[in-house]
Input
Amino acid sequence: MGLHDTLLFTAFSTALSGWLVAMRIPSQKYALLTLTAILSATFSAFGLVSPKPNYPAPPILKTIWFELHVLSAFVSYGLFGVSALLAALKLWKDRQNQDTEELFKFQYRCSLLGYLLFSFSMITGGVWAHLAWGTYWIWTPKELWTAVLWLSYALYLHLRLEPRPFLSKERLKTQLSWWNIGSYGVVLFTYLGVGLLMRSSHSF
Amino acid sequence: MKVLLNVLTSLKLANALTLILLACLLSGSFVMVSEPATGSLNEGSLFSWLLKNDLKVTWWLWGAVTSSFLLGLNVLACSLESLLKGISLRRITPQLFHLGFGLILLAHCASFFGFKRVQVALAPGMSFTLPETKTEVKLVDLGFETSRGYVSNYWVEVFYDSGKHQGKALVAPNRPLFLNGYGVYLKGFVSSHAVVLEVTREPGVALALAGALVFLVGSCLLCWFKFFRR
Output
């Protein structure tokens, strides 16, 4: 399993998540579908030009825990991507003084669901690591960025609950939307940047 | 005292500590790439690694440990305060997340001091003793399969004797042998006649698993409240 497979799966999970959310927001359906199509197509394009691995999976990868770990991680990446698109759409619509309440609501829900799935991915990854390597956590750049990603979305979910008497609700939602987009940057670096630029247990 | 309690239970403190922890781990990833001393991070307990290496290599991990500890206290205080206000399924749900997180922090604490890892190279007929025990593990046989020129599967057969219990076991990728608090893992082949076995002691694994299960229960409940129940 390499970039070719994972990029194409990320494209699929982004497209599916985007389509499912777009059906729930009729007023923003076409805008969201367009943005989702662009993001999904970008992943697909890079996936198609990436070399396809031409060797069988090593024995260490032949376990249900690996499959659950990878599947949940990439489905969560799709949800995080759609959440970031909703955040970007909200910020754009805010400039046009349009009602963005629904966009923010679905942005939060996508992030929450993505976070829960990503947590599941970390748990199954820990189980697999214990069976494969003798420890549920190893200290490599990939694991550190995984923790950074998890904390980033945990912070997003908690920041909206923090009482801020001097900040209006709209201003808070704007700040959270920017944090959401930044967190998706963390997702992209965790998935692609670490694997390509840093040597770790998940190098491509 | 009341001021201290208010600070300890504040969400602002939780968010600030989370941000600090995030920054420490992020910095640590770049330190790991640039400092060769970080290569030995996974060879033994974190505590011994922190004491052995310079602050310029370890500062980010000291920061992460300190902020995690404070975050753990904050989470505990917040959860107790919330539960004292009243108990309902809706109120308990976020506390399950906190409990899971707390258990995983405790797991890391146990591993921080007690993690051990040793490697042994063996040929069939050779044996070794698990550290700090009288349990002997002897390599009986080894084997592997190939497909399209690649190794598709490999395993070893071992005989173990702890004095009280004896037996044979097959050790393969993702199928370790657990004995007396240690895990015996097949790391790989040195040649077609010798293998490397890795013996690890991971004291935090039970706490980590308990934390993960509690977290999962909390996740299911939260999904129920947020997405299905009106």
Q: What stands out?
A: The two ends of chain B are 41 Å apart (CA to CA). DSSP finds six helices and eight strands in chain B. Helices of chain B lie at 2-8, 11-34, 46-52, 55-85, 89-114, 205-228.
